[in-house]
Amino acid sequence: MVGMTVPEIDAKAVPDDVFLLDVRELDEWQAGHAPTAVHIPLGTLQQRVDEVPAGVPVYVICRVGGRSAQATAWLNHIGREAVNVEGGMYSWAAAGRPMIAENGAQPYVA
């Protein structure tokens, strides 16, 4: 996978009705995430890949884009169609996209 180009999309351009995969750790997820995102931390993605739909584009997000780029590269390597959300949740928040936090806390990007 070295040297593989990872497809990316600006957070503003992510369609509302897609499978959005958040690969951050639990504390980051709880601090603020996209309302429709599915949470599968990067460290468990290989074991839980069956929870990621095949045959549809998967948009992958993390905090700033590094872990999601790794996940995107791996998903594409195994034959899935994945796109990295450039800049992660920082870009998501900066774009004014909706976010929710767990336990009623005010969302912030950790």
UniProtKB/TrEMBL annotation:
| Database matches in CDD domains | RHOD
* Record-linked Pfam families: Rhodanese (PF00581)
Q: Where is the Rhodanese domain?
A: 14-101
Highest taxon above the source species? Bacteria
Q: Which SUPFAM superfamilies match?
A: Rhodanese/Cell cycle control phosphatase (SSF52821)
Q: Which InterPro entries match?
A: GlpE_sulfurtransferase, Rhodanese-like_dom, Rhodanese-like_dom_sf
Q: PROSITE patterns per the record? A: RHODANESE_3
What SMART domains would the database entry show?
Answer: RHOD
Name used for this protein in its record:
Rhodanese-like domain-containing protein
Organism of origin is Sphaerisporangium album
